[in-house]
TrEMBL record:
Its main location: mitochondrion. GO terms for cellular component: mitochondrial inner membrane; respiratory chain complex IV. It is found in: Mitochondrion inner membrane. It comes from Drosophila gunungcola. Keywords: Heme, Iron, Membrane, Metal-binding, Mitochondrion, Mitochondrion inner membrane, Transit peptide. GO terms for molecular function: metal ion binding. It comes from the Eukaryota. This is Cytochrome c oxidase subunit 5A, mitochondrial. Component of the cytochrome c oxidase (complex IV, CIV), a multisubunit enzyme composed of a catalytic core of 3 subunits and several supernumerary subunits. The complex exists as a monomer or a dimer and forms supercomplexes (SCs) in the inner mitochondrial membrane with ubiquinol-cytochrome c oxidoreductase (cytochrome b-c1 complex, complex III, CIII). Component of the cytochrome c oxidase, the last enzyme in the mitochondrial electron transport chain which drives oxidative phosphorylation. The respiratory chain contains 3 multisubunit complexes succinate dehydrogenase (complex II, CII), ubiquinol-cytochrome c oxidoreductase (cytochrome b-c1 complex, complex III, CIII) and cytochrome c oxidase (complex IV, CIV), that cooperate to transfer electrons derived from NADH and succinate to molecular oxygen, creating an electrochemical gradient over the inner membrane that drives transmembrane transport and the ATP synthase. Pathway: Energy metabolism; oxidative phosphorylation. The lineage of its organism: Eukaryota, Metazoa, Ecdysozoa, Arthropoda, Hexapoda. It is a peripheral membrane protein. Belongs to the cytochrome c oxidase subunit 5A family.
Length: 149
């Protein structure tokens, strides 16, 4: 599959270097249209809110989101949590929360509490504990640092 994609890309680039305008237009169309943040949020909310969505599709959507260079909005996080509750997969809900926390990166001290504040009503409604309530925020077998007094 990779070789087919590489071959198609090479032929498209070759055509654009020669000056064939139809191939240049085809390459430009590959980028698609830009969508606003609201449209992006609605698309993923709709994806997670579908009737009949199963665990595999939920995992696929979550994996796609966590692979992007962004932190999911609270609305998307809530939609993902509701989807995990519909399929009755608490482990997936916890992993979703861990993934969203990890996506906060170096802004974890400010961004993650904001996200928790926004999604706490949904967590309570669905009966899903936070990572901190479960004690998953600290490693179980961690040793005290020799540098701590």
């Amino acid at each position: 599959m990779l070789s087919i994609t590489a071959r198609n890309l090479a032929s498209a680039l070759r055509g654009s270097l020669v000056g064939t305008s139809s191939r240049v237009a085809a390459v430009r169309c590959l980028h698609g249209t830009e969508e606003s943040a609201e449209e992006f949020d609605k698309r993923y909310e709709k994806y997670f809110s579908r009737d009949g969505i199963d665990g595999w599709e939920i995992r696929k959507g979550m994996n796609d989101l966590l692979g992007m260079d962004l932190v999911p909005s609270p609305k998307i996080i809530e939609a993902g949590l509701r989807a995990t509750r519909r399929v009755n997969d608490i482990a997936l809900a916890i992993r979703w929360l861990e993934g969203c926390k990890d996506k906060c990166g170096d802004q974890k001290a400010t961004l993650y509490p904001y996200l928790l504040e926004k999604i706490t009503p949904t967590l309570q409604e669905l009966g899903i504990p936070t990572i901190e309530e479960l004690g998953y925020d600290k490693p179980e077998l961690a040793l005290k640092s020799v540098y701590d007094a």
